[in-house]
């Protein structure tokens, strides 16, 4: 066929045929490319294919099923670390959804390079964002690059030693409130209580005052519906039933929130209630700060206030780079979420460890009693200088790090420990993988030994061996605050109460956990019996 007749035939084809042909070619290429990435690239091309790592993955979704089936958010990563405790590059390679490349960082040097030296060559994985952003908001946790540096500088002031000092009274007040609730529970429920939900309420209450300057009133009796609804909605977001958990996981892969399921309806209602209530508080604060500004109030006066007032004054009313009320809400959601269930988790595991280790609990109480004899209302400095309390809190946070994952995705080709991680590689850091690594913490790494902190040696003495709050430019901004509130609440608890397990034989090693989950949380709560202290 000559060129002229070919052109003539081509012109006779209608537009639909041409479009269908183009689309067909495009789809065929797409399918071929996807097939290449899923079935060929990971095994024959990926520069990571020779790294040590598990091979027992699903043919389509990599090791995702291994994680779900493991029944524990730290698994199978801990098992992999035990199988390959020291690899030449401190990296274990595994496969993610669609057999995409992922590495688990195990060595301290690899952690340091990822979280510190090359921090901004990575960002939060899109999958992770889709998984938790509904609960955690798009605030500081999800800002990247230069914007993250700017926000971090701005918000760090709220966590200055001076501001922390101002929070001591708040922590003490809420600790007393917790005590009062426990007293009531002893009288009315014979001391039987689920500490997960109780601590979660207290921590949300603290975060309400810190972040919003508002008493969220979570500790009111359940019949006060107006006050409990925020807490209940929060509970629904963080603790959906198993169907809700499945939908949350699926939604991270493709949008399913529009499907007409009861779990989706409950989720949306909870999300909207939380956001509506927050928006009302934000708008009210915008008006108040506007009035203060109009009256010429000194801007230093906003600095010692709660996070919301600070953000409204500094960013809503800024001359440039202003934050909208919607963005301020994302920040508030971020702080409420980041500072509430994590710290509640620390207290939950602290309580369980006191139950499992009565001798350690006794030593803690002896030290606290001694302090309270000297100073019935101890100063912050006195609290922070208690050596055993410090060891106890760090050991709880080492053994049961409440946050499970620090996840990243390479935004460019990055060399880590001499290995090129191609752009898009998922990088996983799990505090437990470092903190339960026998080559770092010794053969007793799975045991609760607060005294170990007095004689750290070798790699365990390296600051990077304690990964609970991560490190580097994105280290948890609330780390010092958490340590202080955790200690103040522990002082209150050990000085007034004894705890006993309610489920015979329940131990850290056999308590069933919510899985998958970004937090280490017991499934169905943790029921214990609280009693007034005997001696
Ligand atoms: C036991 C308690 C806590 C634990 C275990 C914890 C853990 C962590 C970890 C591991 C990160 C790093 C996440 C990442 O980069 O992927 C982080 C970041 C963060 N945490 Fe915490 N946290 C706790 C308490 C708090 C508190 C009380 C607050 C707020 C008052 C808070 C606010 C934040 C924020 C805003 C970030 C993001 C920081 C950034 O990206 O610059 N956290 N936290």
UniProtKB/TrEMBL annotation:
Q: Which UniProt keywords apply?
A: Heme, Iron, Metal-binding
State the needed cofactors, names only: heme
User: A Gene Ontology MF term for this entry?
Assistant: iron ion binding
Q: Which residues bind heme?
A: 476
Q: Which Gene3D superfamilies match?
A: Cytochrome P450
* Record SUPFAM superfamilies: Cytochrome P450
The family database entries (InterPro entries) matched by this protein are listed as: Cyt_P450, Cyt_P450_E_grp-I, Cyt_P450_sf, Cytochrome_P450_monoxygenase
Family named by the database record: Belongs to the cytochrome P450 family.
Would you tell me the protein name for this molecule? Answer: Cytochrome P450 4F5
- Write down the species: Parachaetomium inaequale
């Amino acid at each position: 066929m000559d060129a002229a007749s070919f052109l003539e035939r081509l012109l006779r084809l209608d537009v639909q045929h041409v479009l269908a042909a183009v689309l067909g070619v495009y789809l065929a290429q797409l399918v071929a490319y996807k097939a290449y990435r899923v079935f060929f690239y990971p095994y024959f091309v990926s520069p990571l294919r020779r790294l040590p790592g598990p091979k027992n993955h699903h043919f389509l979704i990599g090791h995702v099923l291994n994680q779900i089936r493991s029944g524990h958010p730290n698994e199978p990563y801990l098992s992999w670390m035990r199988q390959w405790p020291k690899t030449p590059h401190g990296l274990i390679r595994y496969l993610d959804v669609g057999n995409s490349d992922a590495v688990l960082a195990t060595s301290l040097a690899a952690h340091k390079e990822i979280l510190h030296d090359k921090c901004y060559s990575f960002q939060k994985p899109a999958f992770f964002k889709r998984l938790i952003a509904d609960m955690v908001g798009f605030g500081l946790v999800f800002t990247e690059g230069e914007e993250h540096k700017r926000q971090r500088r701005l918000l760090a002031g709220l966590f200055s030693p001076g501001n922390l000092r101002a929070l001591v009274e708040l922590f003490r007040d809420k600790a007393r409130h917790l005590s009062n609730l426990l007293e009531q529970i002893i009288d009315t429920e014979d001391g039987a209580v689920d500490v997960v939900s109780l601590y979660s309420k207290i921590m949300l209450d603290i975060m309400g005052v810190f972040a919003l300057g508002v008493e969220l009133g979570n500790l009111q009796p359940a019949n006060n519906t107006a006050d409990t609804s925020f807490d209940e909605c929060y509970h629904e977001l963080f603790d959906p039933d198993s169907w809700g958990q499945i939908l949350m996981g699926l939604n991270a892969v493709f949008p399913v929130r529009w499907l007409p399921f009861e779990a989706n309806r409950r989720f949306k209602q909870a999300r909207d209630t939380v956001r509506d209530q927050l928006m009302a508080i934000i708008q009210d604060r915008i008006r108040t700060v506007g009035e203060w500004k109009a009256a010429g109030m000194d801007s230093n006066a906003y600095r010692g206030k709660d996070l919301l007032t600070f953000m409204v004054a500094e960013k809503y009313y800024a001359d440039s780079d202003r934050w909208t009320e919607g963005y301020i809400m994302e920040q508030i959601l971020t702080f409420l979420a980041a500072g509430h269930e994590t710290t509640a988790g620390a207290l939950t595991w602290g309580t369980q460890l006191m139950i499992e280790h009565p001798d350690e609990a006794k030593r803690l109480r002896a030290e606290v009693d001694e302090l309270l004899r000297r100073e019935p209302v101890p100063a912050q400095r006195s609290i922070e200088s208690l050596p055993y309390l410090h060891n106890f809190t760090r050991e709880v946070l080492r053994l049961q790090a409440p946050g499970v994952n620090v996840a990243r995705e390479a935004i460019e080709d990055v060399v880590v420990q001499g290995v090129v991680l191609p752009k898009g590689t998922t990088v996983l850091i799990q505090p437990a993988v470092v903190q339960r690594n026998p080559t770092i913490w010794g053969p007793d790494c799975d045991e609760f030994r607060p005294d170990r902190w007095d004689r750290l040696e070798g790699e365990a003495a390296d600051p990077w061996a304690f990964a609970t709050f991560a490190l580097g430019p994105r280290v948890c901004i609330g780390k010092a605050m958490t340590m202080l509130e955790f200690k103040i609440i522990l002082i209150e608890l050990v000085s007034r109460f004894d705890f006993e397990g309610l489920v015979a034989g329940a131990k850290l090693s056999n308590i069933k956990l919510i899985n998958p989950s970004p937090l280490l949380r017991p499934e169905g709560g943790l029921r214990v019996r609280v009693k007034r202290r005997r001696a």
